[in-house]
Amino acid sequence: MQAEALSGLIRRLAPGPTVIAGGSGGSRVSMLAAARVPEICSHLAIWWISGDPIGLMQLATYYCGEAATLASSGGMEAVMNATSWAENLAKSEQARAYIRGFCNGRSRVNPF
Question: Is 17:42 a contact under the CB 8 Å cutoff?
């Protein structure tokens, strides 16, 4: 809810891509706003991510859980089909090429 409010405020003020910064609980709000509406964010600065180890594990699971599970059972080819990555992979040939590099057994791929 707070991330939606933050991204809505930035869109309403319309300053263009914005540096989003937050500490403690605001770090999570900042990350979520930047992840959900990437066009509003030029840079992301976070510090003192709150939530102790349990909270941090939940963040990691939220952002990477599906891909990690798929990678462990079906390799990077399976990650290419992750629903949580579908939108980003559809938007970026660079991201698809990077993941494909891992599918083809190359551990280091320069996507740039």
Answer: yes
41/59 same-domain check: no
Q: Which domain holds residue 32?
A: 1-50
Residues 46 and 73 in one domain: no
The 10s digit of each residue's pLDDT in 57-110 is 777 787 788 888 988 888 888 888 888 888 888 888 888 888 888 766 654 545
CA nearest neighbour of 20 among 34, 39, 35, 9: 34
Cβ-Cβ contacts under 8 Å for 109 (sequence gap 6 or more): 97, 98, 101, 102
Determine the Cα–Cα distance for residues 69 and 62; give it in Å rounded to an integer.
12
Q: What is the per-residue pLDDT across 35-56, written as a single tens digit (0 to 9) for each?
A: 888 999 999 998 877 666 777 7
